[in-house]
Each structure stands twice: as structure tokens, then as C-alpha cells.
Amino acid sequence: MSLTHSVKSYELELQTLASSVGAMGDFAGAQFADAIQALLARDVNLAQRVIEQDRQIDALRRDLSAAAATVIVRRQPVAADLDEVLAELRIVEDLERIGDLAKNIARRATIIADEPLTADICDKIRGLAILTSGQLRNAIDAYVAHDAAKAQAMPKDDDQIDALHAEIFADIIALMNASQAQIAPLVHLLFCAKNIERIADHATHIGEVTLQSARSHQPLRR
What pLDDT is recorded for position 8? Predict the structure, then answer.
């Protein structure tokens, strides 16, 4: 095999791996969006679909981890290329956890589908989910484009998400104190809000990993 052909083949492997990670990010984002829709629209069928599709996220994580390991063993990348593959491994783990959190929201959605929910809290959870979806979208876009500026701005957006989550937490605790009958569904909403906030944390971590990789060499190989 010629050196030129070998280099092109190596570049193709890196591009395929990066593209697959981006596609996994899109799927994780769709799972999260569907879980929120299922929760707020009381759509048990959609919630069940999110739960069932989590197996696909798990399979993607296994396949991409194996593919990255194969690149390391076969190509023995060093320096920036090794950093890139290791970064992708970390991002895949974050995306798998986002899928798990979306599944957890969907499971709680099936439990409280018939419970009356406070409109104000639901509106705030919707707002929290919108901010978090934007954070995840920014993380994936920054990773795919190696956009250091977008990745660097993400912690500021995460602060806004944390503030709204704290507000929702306080509101739910107040409602629990006011109505014993609503404690059970409110507990589920409390955990749903926490899961959303944790998804934002994983998105922010993807941005941090992207920023570190972007700074290690300009641009990353693609």
C-alpha cells in the first residue's frame, strides 16, 4: 500500500468517526426533545418510544467506542491525532449519558401522565428544556465545526440554565409544602428538572472537550 493511499485511508477513518459522533449527538438531541414533548403533552406512546430507542444510543456508544479503539490500535496516533480520538471517546460517553437522562424523563412522563400539573411549572420546565436543547445543539455544532469561540461561550449559557433550574426547584418545594396531595407528581417533576440540568452539564462538558481539542491544534484534522 502506498503512503499516499495509507494517509487518505487514515483521514477517511478520522472523518467517518467524527461524522458518526455528530450523528449520535443529533440522535441524543432528538431523544431529549421527544422526552420533553412526552412529559408536557402527556404522550405515553411517545415516552415509550423514547425508552425503547435508548437501546440504539447504547449500541451507538459501543460501536463508536470500538471504532475509536480500532483507530488507536491500527494507526497508533500521536499528539494531536491521539487527542482527537480520545476527545471523541469522552464525547460519546457524554452522549450516552444524555440518552439515559432522556430515558429517565420519559419513564417519569409515563408515571405522571394522568396527574394534574401546574401550568407555571410546566412552562418553566419547557423554558429550561429549550435552553438545554440549545446548549446541546451548540455543543454538537462546535464539535463538528471545531468552533472554539462557540465552545468557549457555553459555560455562560450553562449559568443561565443553572439559575432557572434553581428557580424551578424552589417553586416545586413551595408547592409541595402547600399541597400534600401533589407531592408524588411534583417529586417526579423535580427529578425531571434535575435531569434536564444534568443534560446541560453534559453538553457543557462536550463544549469543554471540544475547546481543549481545538486549542491543541488548529484546525483539527478532518
Answer: 73
Assigned C-alpha cell, 117: 400539573
CA 116 to chain centroid, in Å, comes to: 29
Contact 161, 131 (CB under 8 A): yes
Instruction: For each of the domains in the chain, give its residue range(s) and CATH number, in order of start.
Output: 3-216 (1.20.58.220)
3-state secondary structure the chain: CCHHHHHHHHHHHHHHHHHHHHHHHHHHHHHHHHHHHHHHHCCHHHHHHHHHHHHHHHHHHHHHHHHHHHHHHHHCCCHHHHHHHHHHHHHHHHHHHHHHHHHHHHHHHHHCCCCCCCHHHHHHHHHHHHHHHHHHHHHHHHHHHCCHHHHHHHHHHHHHHHHHHHHHHHHHHHHHHHCHHHHHHHHHHHHHHHHHHHHHHHHHHHHHHHHHHHHHCCCCCC
d(CA 61, CA 53): 13
| 8 Å CB contact between 15 and 67 | no
pLDDT tens digits, residue range 43-76? Answer: 999 999 999 999 999 999 999 999 888 888 876 7
Q: Give the predicted TM-score (pTM) of the model.
A: 0.90
Q: Are 158 and 204 in contact (CB under 8 A)?
A: yes
Straight-line distance from the first to the last Cα atom of the chain, in angstroms, rounded to the nearest whole number: 22
